[in-house]
Amino acid sequence: MIVANAVGRALRLSGVDTVFGVVGSGNFHVTNALVAGGARFVAARHEGGAATMADAYARVSGNLGVLSVHQGPGLTNALTGITEAAKSRTPLLVLAAEVTSPRSNFWLDQAALATAVGAVPERIHSPETALADAARACRTAVAERRTVLLSLPLDVQAAECPNLWADPEIVLLPPPVPEIGGLADALSAARRPVFIGGRGARLAGAREPLRILAARTGALLATSAVARGLFAGDLFDLDVSGGFASPVAAELIRGADLIVGWGCALNMWTLRHGNLVGADTVVVQVDLDTDALGAHQPVRLGITGDVTAVALAAEAELARRGHSSAGYRSPELADRLAREVRWRDVPYDDDSDGSRIDPRTLSIALDDLLPAERTVAVDSGNFMGYPAMYLGVPDVDGLVFTQAFQSIGLGLATAIGAAVARPDRLTVAALGDGGALMGVAELETAVRLGLGMLIVVYDDEAYGAEVHHFGPAGHPLDTVTFPPVDLAAVGRGFGCEAVTVLRTEDLSAVTAWLAGPRDRPMVVDAKVTTGRPSWWLEEAFRGH
Length: 544
What we know:
globular; alpha/beta; Rossmann fold; six-stranded parallel beta sheet; single chain
């Protein structure tokens, strides 16, 4: 058996069940070997889409994401998606064919590319080490939660594999528990504590340990945007901290005397450029990555460790001390949160005028219309706060938010990866018109796969963030505004059902689609009002 087939077979035996990619000559054999072993291959129309699908699949399924690409342009086409995954610490294995001669037109310094975007470079070095090399790449991706670029040189791929049965073995060791006396002291002293759970808390499965610790200490619960839904259903859930925080959530976080970031970067987005931290607030950060501690926000105490392990240890220590406090919690506050914490419960002046629909009105109407069991995948742009915050999610897997690199155009592919991972839920792709047109090729992928997903385009016929950023200063906006596009017609051209929405009554077409077989996507081209920036963008501008 040649090395390409042996590596594909071994990866399948190690548990890889789904692979995304675009196949060329360089990755043909390894991809076919995975498929022959029983893995599902999802063919995208562009490597950038394939990378983002694999990223979203890993986030939602909890499994290792796998991407297969051709040498040269196959890899460079995928780089934006790989960069997003790397910055998000997504466990993702990129199988990239490689030429070794600098004279080849396909030659790239693939290790340098990986390093430049924050991924880990690995390589199949020889036929004798091929399976061990593949195993090492898998271990790094899974155990360290990293995106790994595994280069497969063409000459090594074509050689005979001498150790066919040496299958990869992934061994995960429990993380060590650090000393938590200082954390226990801070929790014991706090009277108004707030916990903010981030990506690390999500990956660690820390919902219940953090809820138990919060109940003991009287802490309110919040999340970063990427971990939204982690505490869904808890009476003292503030929802998202930062630019997306509702007025009552921002008020309560700002009033905390202790903020603990659990696997959360505590960056400018999550803490509104530090404006959610009171003058006398003690800030504590728990993260697996020592370099993350205090990187964005000064902290009184930084703890290197797994979020679940640290939360369990802190709970045990406080129980040993006999500590229990109502803290920030009260029946009156629980009642207030039930009435005011959601953005959809915040009063607003509806800007809808019959020819365009207010994005808040659109989002609230969709929230009422769609089933509760849903996955919401959101692209980047001025619009993104509306679907991210006005559409409820059932749990931490309900929102897929590929925003670490802040690239527009990833939303549709994100939704496809999420839909493949969770076919039991309705997947909603929330896009701006700019991002929708960037990723439009993957509409064919969604139709070909028969995905009954809802694709909602918040269509303002512009790159809205730039319009609202530079427009007030009187700058010309010709470079960031565009003529109208009939995106519903574009959707129908790909084989989707589609409707143009100017008012809430037009959403009756979505109701009919939901009641039908849902054997194809539906595109909603929502012509949204353009008169004001979203609230989170206004906040970001003030921060800058």
